[in-house]
Please model this.
Amino acid sequence: MSTRVERTVTIGENDLTFTVMEPQGDGWTATVWLDEDLARVAGADAYDGFVDRFSATPGIAFTEVEDRDFVHVRSEGLTPEQLLEAVLVAAHVADA
Model:
């Protein structure tokens, strides 16, 4: 599993890490890993609806959730950095 980009954000006294990785399967652009503590630290709203908010990002064509923390992404023209920024916005932690 190769990391393309990663960012750690601090919420209160907690560090949450979000990662955009090489795709974990054929036909995907990337795989996103959400910190498993997102719902506990940032609140349920940060996780509930994440996939819908993230999928609504212009340039994201399709997503599929694997387990709770991995989201496979098919995007059109978005860089890994742009995908990571979209993850942070959708997780409500972009300004943390």
Summary: The radius of gyration is 12 Å. The CA atoms of residues 25 and 67 lie 15 Å apart. The longest helix spans residues 80-90.
